[in-house]
Amino acid sequence: IAEYIHSLDRISTAWEISKRAGKLGRTQKVLIEVNVAQEETKIGIAPGELYSFCQEIVQVPHLDICGLMTLAPLVEDPEEVRGVFRDLRQMRDDLAARGIFPNFSHLSMGMTNDFEVAIEEGATMVRVGSAIFC
């Protein structure tokens, strides 16, 4: 199991991760993937379903829910997706204020083409693979 799993979006997946982490005697850090832009080609929890998903997932043992992740639409001008990043930050802040997850701090958002805007909007983790490997 990895240090973090960034793409949790199903209760069934949460239970499978929990089972495997339990067998290893550890707690797995995970981020909930939210489809903020509600793109049909991407996976993730719909924003309107996030709170109920979180209420369910808090019952799953061996998971440390650390924050949220999203993939913004691919656009030429990163400013076009600033609202996506801002919305995810607001979702994280709203959930943290409700006290569901004590370690709820991370925002994994932004890739090579838009990571600077994501950082400005609060990203704590970015994915810049193509800037490094291409």
UniProtKB/TrEMBL annotation:
Residues 6-133 form the Alanine racemase N-terminal domain. It holds the Pfam family Ala_racemase_N. One of its GO terms (molecular function) is pyridoxal phosphate binding. The keyword ATP-binding does not apply. InterPro entries: Ala_racemase_N (IPR001608), PLP-binding_barrel (IPR029066), PyrdxlP_homeostasis (IPR011078). The keyword Transcription does not apply. Keywords: Pyridoxal phosphate. Belongs to the pyridoxal phosphate-binding protein YggS/PROSC family. NCBIfam families: YggS family pyridoxal phosphate-dependent enzyme. This is PLP dependent protein. It comes from Candidatus Hakubella thermalkaliphila. The lineage of its organism: Bacteria, Bacillati, Actinomycetota, Actinomycetota incertae sedis, Candidatus Hakubellales.
